[in-house]
Write a structure and sequence with these properties.
It is a peripheral membrane protein. With 597 residues, the protein is of the alpha+beta class. 25% of the residues lie in helices and 33% in strands. It has an 8-stranded antiparallel sheet with strand order 11-10-16-7-8-15-12-13. Strands 2-3-1-4-5-6 form a 6-stranded mixed sheet, sandwiched between helices. Strands 21, 22, 23, 24, 25 and 26 form a 6-stranded antiparallel sheet that branches. A hairpin with a 3-residue loop joins strand 7 and strand 8. It binds guanosine-5'-diphosphate and magnesium ion. The site of magnesium ion has 4 residues, from helix 1.
Length: 597
């Protein structure tokens, strides 16, 4: 295929606006897949994607399209995720593309991620084709959506709006034509040395690391000797090929192509997404700019159940290879032993990684309560300590002051739900910065502690707005916060992995709530066990986990309460030394911390 006839583009949109459906229609209308295959959505094949009905991983597919001008074009498209937690995945896909289809659902109009993804595309200098989708739906307001799109960017002022139904296929042909007439062909040269962007990767049990590449210059054949430029890591092109969407081996890849390279590397850490692949014999002079590493916003500990530390290590290494926004490093806790401190872009991301560990690696991990990163300034210290694990939060006597991360949250909602949404944001310590109308919708901008939105804010927002509100968040720096560490003591021994950090004003209520939940989920022992939440050395709340079977205290109905407590305490004192190590911590115990309001 001549490079002039190649087009590389991404499909971007707000979640649920129809990217994967349009991707399916494109594959169907270019006969990339048979009609039988196209019965079901082809691209969202991860179990987590089917379970949640969302795209988590970008997918690449090569299609051949015979256009109305009689020429055949090669269309490489990348279907991208829409959820705000996967923006990093989108930005990688855009760096491998020359253009983007920006889909907007005509029943919902322009939404937060529409704007965010358009910005990403413009930052990558892509040609953007706006497409109005779902025009078949009864609730579609095509004209209003067209107006909203026009107001997004001067580039859209006088484009002809494509109006389609990805579901029925109506006018999808117009999209196929617009791609080759509007999006530029790649500009690379076959004669230059090989320069290929590694925009994604995957670990295959048999073949090792497979790099997904976009060739900017040069060409690539099987058995070529290559190297990764950031690390000088040598790589053999054991096999090269394209995505149809399955991997299909090919004899050559040339400038402008999107495809894969089976590298033969077995160590999952040997390759970094964003690196440049070039040839050993004739290397390119400069590497591609690559990506900024993603910044984790939420952290949690992952611990193996039973004797599976090594399995968990291999699994997180391989997942990190496939998801460059997932970070991990070893950590250990007295209560749980060896595990990993993991960093995520948000709580939904955390949930997806847990499910992928289960689905793809058969591992159920114990997950500690998520937290954000604090900057702790200790007395007489120079630089602040960066604390992303509550276990490492210094003793209160040593702390001068603490800073916590703030978020700017942009919420788009309907005027009907406005007051409930504002109430929710205020409950989460949000301060209103800006409020404006966007068509019939209201756009609110709040500044609030990142920890407040890191947990269930998104779900609460969906619920108070009956599903209409949308949210994007951005880190807005750090600010001083009066936060304290809440420790949990079981049988007078601190269980380090249950510690968490909260605003001081919220601590008493959360401490109460937590011990009452723990009462029912901490496995019972022969003796009653006190469970306490402790803040700055003082117990704020206490309950007793009842013993397994009846004992002196349990049938001492006639005893006074204080005597009963004294007895309970004596009983547990006897077990104190051994108490700490023999408390089992099932996942429900951590969920109790997670579910606190
Ligand atoms: P994505 O999150 O952007 O990949 O969205 P999907 O392609 O998964 O589509 C989300 C939902 O919208 C699915 O239930 C689709 O069946 C539906 N959908 C997609 N395109 C259309 C369309 O043109 N018309 C209608 N009525 N529904 C559509
Ligand atoms: Mg999708």
């Amino acid at each position: 295929m001549q490079i002039q006839n190649v087009r590389n583009f991404a499909i971007i949109a707000h979640i649920d606006h129809g990217k994967s459906t349009l991707a399916d229609r494109i594959m169907e209308q270019t006969q990339t897949v048979s009609d039988r295959e196209s019965q079901a959505q082809l691209l969202d094949d991860l179990a987590v994607e089917q379970a949640h009905g969302v795209t988590v991983k970008s997918r690449t597919v090569r299609n051949y399209y015979t256009a109305d001008d009689g020429q055949e074009y090669e269309y490489n498209f990348i279907d991208t995720p829409g959820h705000v937690d996967f923006t990093y995945e989108v930005s990688k896909s855009l760096a491998a593309s020359d253009g983007a289809l920006l889909l907007v659902d005509a029943t919902q109009g322009v939404q937060a991620q529409t704007v965010a993804n358009l910005r990403l595309a413009q930052d990558n200098h892509l040609t953007v084709i706006p497409v109005i989708n779902k025009i078949d739906a009864a609730a579609a307001d095509v004209e209003r959506t067209a107006e909203q799109i026009r107001s997004l960017s001067p580039d859209f002022a006088d484009v002809t709006m494509l109006k389609i139904s990805a579901k029925t296929g109506l006018n999808v042909h117009d999209v196929l034509e617009a791609i080759h007439t509007t999006i530029p062909a790649p500009t690379g040269s076959l004669k230059q040395p090989l320069k290929a962007l590694v925009f994604d990767s995957q670990y295959d049990a048999f073949k090792g690391i497979i790099a997904y590449v976009r060739l900017m210059d040069g060409q690539l054949k099987p058995n070529d000797k290559l190297k990764l430029m950031a690390t000088d890591q040598p790589v053999m092109a054991n096999e090269i090929g394209i995505f149809t969407p399955q991997r299909v081996a090919a004899k050559q890849l040339v400038a402008g192509d999107v495809g894969y390279v089976v590298t033969g590397l077995k160590d999952p850490q040997a390759l970094r997404v964003g690196d440049t692949l070039t040839s050993v014999a004739n290397p390119t002079a400069t590497a591609l700019p690559g990506y900024q590493p993603s910044q984790s916003m939420v952290f949690a500990g992952f611990y193996p159940q039973g004797d599976h530390y090594h399995d968990l290590q291999l699994a997180v290494e391989k997942l990190a290879l496939n998801d460059a926004s997932f970070h991990y490093r070893p950590e250990s806790s007295d209560a749980l032993g060896a595990g990993f401190r993991c960093g995520f872009l948000g709580i939904f991301h955390l949930q997806i990684i847990r499910e992928r560990l289960h689905d793809e690696y058969g591992l159920d991990v114990l997950t500690t309560a998520p937290n954000v990163t604090y900057r702790v300034h200790v007395k007489n210290g120079d630089d602040p300590l960066i604390v992303d694990n509550p276990i490492k939060f210094p003793d209160y006597s040593k702390i001068d002051y603490v800073e916590e991360p703030l978020a700017t949250a942009t919420i788009t909602t309907t005027s009907e739900s406005l007051s409930d949404v504002m109430k929710l944001a205020t409950q989460h310590k949000g301060e209103l910065q800006d409020m404006r109308n966007q068509g019939d919708l209201v756009v609110l901008e709040y500044q609030l502690p990142f920890a407040e939105i890191a947990y269930d804010f998104f779900n609460a927002l969906k619920s108070v707005s009956h599903g209409y509100a949308t949210l994007t968040t951005e880190l807005a720096g750090y600010d001083i916060a009066d936060v304290v560490k809440v420790e949990v003591h079981v049988n007078y021994a601190r269980v380090d992995a249950l510690s968490f950090v909260v605003h001081r004003e919220d601590a008493p209520l959360m401490a109460q709530e937590l011990v009452h939940k723990l009462k029912f989920v901490i496995p019972r022992k022969l003796n009653p066990m006190p469970v306490q939440s402790v803040v700055e050395g003082k117990a704020l709340a206490r309950v007793d986990v009842p013993p397994l079977r009846k004992n002196a205290a349990a049938n001492g109905e006639k005893r006074s309460t204080s005597k009963k407590q004294a007895l309970l305490r004596r009983q547990s004192m006897n077990k104190r030394q051994s108490a700490h190590s023999d408390i089992e911590l099932p996942q429900e115990v951590f969920n109790a911390v997670l579910d606190l309001e």
